[in-house]
């Protein structure tokens, strides 16, 4: 019964050696090739070969694992391009007159600037205008403050080396110059007058326009921002003769009015604003399902020295984005019908660790000065305005005014121009870091445009078209003719649109699949085999700890045995009689000793022979038994001998 209990397997048993653990693993694991490590214990060459092969394969496996984890933590993305067909929301369309209008509040200052500019043209190029000749007599003795502060003059390029801010010239037709090697510009200095430079241009047209624009900004800055003063500007009907979308006439709820300092009055259609009508949508492509407008392109009472182009400025943008005509607009020519076909594309980027984009701009340390959603252009302009206020102490007029600030005017900030042009040069070279701060949005909608042109109205239909315009819109055909009107068509070329979506190339599911594929390739096993490897590692650690503790305990026991004293040997006592009168051994005095001699006869050397191990063991055991019997017989004879004596 006891033997059966001992033969039963215990609840927790462990391996007694590394060899036993290794043999058990190699014989029972599901990993291919490991059994070859234990099935050839008598062939060391095969065992060594399979050990080397197993180690090399294991190394290659984890090398592939390292490559996969490296790709995973580099966060690559895949671009999926889809073509969708759906009812398309129409974008916002902004149309500007392409000419800044004259404000009544600063009319006298603008007229003075025009007179001074014509006088500068006469002094530099000998240009004479009828207006200049008629006004010279009445204003001969008057000198303008503008001409005293920032005179426009000829400059020798050799004297300007290292004393100017380089600036890319605007593409304009260059005026013929008598001094071909000379530039034209104006001088700008800081408040102390120690740091000065010349803002120079090689083109006379560029120089006149920039000089006029600089003074024009200062004049506009004097207009009160909260006075509610009415501006002498044209009405909607004077600029847009006709407007239709999906063959329905446009209403006042379809557009908003704004004013651009360089492009004049602007009207934005289909803008996303509170209380606006339903957004426009196109379910079919073509001109009849888009926006059609007839625009007036006359240039009367405008600023010819600031605007040198006739026609209209058009920009297509998102409904919740502000228009930037100077950045993304295009011009349409008078006397032509311009047809703009659009194709829509949406981009959906992955944020976070996959790309450097922002969801709504809330994580960017640049305040949004525009009343709109985040765009990269909105952020860049806001960043420049913030740098302008911080360094120059005033705000640039072409961008929104920050709270509690005022626009730059050299009547208040005499030398703000020096600060502005230097800051603009740093902005263009990205020394301000605005382009790095302003990240691209994760979700973006773009409209790709293509244009077609045709003569409008045609010679055959011009008479009745102009007659209808003169009757309905008071259009002066005699004064303007074909150059006074233009037609614009904006429509979708197709109801399908392309969407570009980023997705992770290697997510967690794909990573596990690739790891499993590599494991199966090199070892032909599964997830359970990985568990077996984990179990092997655990067993190796456990058996190492157990063997270490066992060895440590053994050393302690050996040290204790060596340090302890050996016990006194106890001699065997034999009871010879049961007579109570005879004194027993316990009653003997402590000074009596009984010596027992163990007499063992010498071995018979002549009888030594070679025997097997078993015979040796048997003979050894028999000799021990015989020796024990002789000892016992000698001890029994000793008391009898003493009695006889």
Count the DSSP helices: 17
| Unreliable segments of 5+ consecutive residues | 136-143, 164-178, 227-232, 584-593, 612-645
Question: What would you give as the CATH superfamily of the largest domain?
Answer: Acid-sensing ion channels like domains
Q: What general outline do the C-alpha atoms trace?
A: elongated
Structural class: alpha+beta
CATH architecture of the largest domain: Sandwich
Radius of gyration: 52 Å
Distance between the amino and carboxyl termini: 56 Å
Question: Helix proportion of residues, in percent?
Answer: 25-40%
CATH fold node name of the largest domain:
Acid-sensing ion channels like fold
CATH class of the largest domain: Mainly Beta
Main sheet specs = 8 strands, mixed
Number of strands: 20
- Percent strand: 15-25%
Mean pLDDT level: 76
Tally of structural domains = 4
Write down the oligomeric state. single chain
How does this structure look, described?
It is a single chain. The chain is α+β, with helices and mostly antiparallel strands and 645 residues long. The protein folds into 4 domains: 12-75 and 506-546, no CATH class; 80-101 and 233-350 and 444-504, Acid-sensing ion channels like domains (Acid-sensing ion channels like fold, Sandwich); 107-220, no CATH class; 356-441, Helix Hairpins (Orthogonal Bundle), CATH 1.10.287. Helix content is 37%, strand content 18%. It contains 17 helices and 20 strands. It has helices spanning 2-7, 18-28, 44-73, 107-125, 130-135, 145-149, 204-220, 236-239, 325-328, 376-392, 416-428, 434-437, 462-473, 477-480, 508-523, 527-563, 613-644; strands spanning 77-85, 88-89, 92-96, 153-155, 183-189, 196-201, 240-245, 248-249, 255-260, 264-269, 281-282, 291-296, 312-317, 330-332, 336-348, 357-358, 440-441, 443-455, 485-492, 496-504. The strands form 5 sheets. Strands 1, 7, 8, 12, 15, 18, 19 and 20 form an 8-stranded mixed sheet that branches. A 5-stranded antiparallel sheet has the order 9-10-3-13-14, with no helix packed on it. It has a 3-stranded antiparallel sheet with strand order 4-5-6. β7 (240-245) and β8 (248-249) form a beta hairpin. α4 (107-125) runs antiparallel to α7 (204-220) and α10 (376-392) packs antiparallel against α11. It is elongated, with a radius of gyration of 52 Å.
């Amino acid at each position: 019964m006891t033997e059966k209990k001992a033969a039963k397997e215990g609840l927790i048993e462990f391996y007694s050696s590394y060899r036993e653990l290794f043999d058990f693993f190699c014989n029972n694991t599901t990993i291919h090739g490991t059994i070859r490590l234990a099935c050839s214990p008598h062939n060391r060459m095969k065992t060594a070969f399979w050990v080397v092969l197993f180690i090399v394969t294991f190394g290659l496996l984890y090398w592939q694992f390292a490559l996969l984890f490296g790709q995973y933590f580099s966060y690559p993305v895949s671009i999926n391009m889809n073509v969708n067909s759906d009812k398309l929301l129409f974008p916002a369309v902004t149309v500007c007159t392409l000419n800044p209008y004259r404000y009544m509040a600063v009319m006298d200052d603008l007229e003075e600037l025009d007179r001074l500019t014509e006088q500068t043209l006469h002094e530099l190029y000998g240009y004479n205008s009828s207006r200049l000749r008629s006004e010279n007599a009445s204003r001969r003795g008057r000198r303008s403050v503008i001409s005293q502060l920032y005179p426009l003059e000829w400059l020798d390029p050799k004297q300007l080396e290292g004393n100017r801010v380089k600036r890319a010239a605007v593409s304009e037709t260059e005026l013929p110059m008598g001094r071909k090697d000379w530039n034209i510009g104006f001088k700008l200095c800081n408040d102390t007058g120690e740091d000065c430079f010349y803002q120079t241009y090689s083109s006379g047209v560029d120089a006149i326009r920039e000089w006029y624009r600089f003074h024009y900004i200062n004049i506009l800055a004097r207009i009160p921002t909260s006075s509610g003063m009415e501006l002498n500007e044209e009405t909607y009907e004077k600029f847009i003769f006709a407007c239709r979308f999906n063959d329905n006439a446009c209403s006042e709820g379809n557009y908003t009015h704004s004013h651009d300092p360089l492009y004049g009055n602007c009207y934005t259609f289909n803008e996303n604003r509170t209380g606006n009508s339903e957004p426009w949508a196109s379910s079919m492509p073509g001109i009849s399902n888009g926006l059609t407008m007839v625009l007036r392109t006359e240039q009367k009472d405008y600023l010819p020295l600031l605007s040198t182009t006739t026609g209209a400025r058009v920009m297509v943008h998102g409904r919740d984005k502000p228009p930037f005509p100077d950045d993304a607009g295009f011009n349409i020519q008078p006397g032509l019908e311009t047809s703009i076909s659009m194709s829509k594309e949406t981009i959906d980027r992955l944020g976070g660790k996959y790309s450097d984009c922002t969801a709504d701009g809330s994580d960017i340390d640049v305040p949004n000065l525009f009343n709109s959603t985040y765009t990269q252009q909105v952020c860049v302009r806001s960043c420049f305005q913030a740098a302008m206020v911080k360094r120059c102490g005033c705000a640039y007029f072409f961008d929104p005014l920050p709270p509690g600030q005022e626009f730059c005017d050299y009547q208040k900030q005499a030398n703000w121009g020096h600060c502005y042009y230097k800051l603009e040069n740093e902005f263009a070279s990205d020394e301000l870091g605005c382009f790095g701060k302003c990240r691209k949005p994760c979700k973006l909608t773009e409209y790709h445009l293509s244009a077609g042109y045709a003569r409008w109205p045609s010679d055959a239909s011009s008479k009745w078209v102009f007659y209808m315009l003169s009757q309905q819109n008071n259009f002066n055909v005699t004064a303007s003719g074909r150059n006074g009107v233009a037609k614009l068509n904006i429509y979708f070329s197709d109801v399908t649109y392309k969407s570009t979506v980023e997705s992770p190339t290697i997510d967690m599911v794909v990573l596990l699949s690739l790891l499993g594929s590599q494991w199966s390739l090199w070892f032909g096993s599964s997830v359970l085999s990985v568990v077996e490897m984990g179990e092997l590692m655990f067993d190796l650690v456990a058996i190492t700890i157990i063997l270490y503790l066992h060895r440590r305990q053994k050393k302690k026991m050996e040290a204790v045995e060596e340090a302890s004293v050996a016990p006194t040997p106890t001699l065997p006592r034999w009871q010879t009689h049961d007579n109570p009168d005879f004194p027993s051994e316990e009653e003997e005095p402590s000074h009596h000793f009984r010596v027992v001699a163990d007499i063992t006869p010498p071995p018979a050397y002549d009888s030594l022979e070679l025997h097997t191990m078993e015979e040796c063991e048997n003979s050894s055991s028999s000799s021990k038994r015989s020796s024990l019997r002789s000892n016992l017989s000698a001890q029994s004879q000793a008391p009898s001998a003493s009695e006889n004596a």
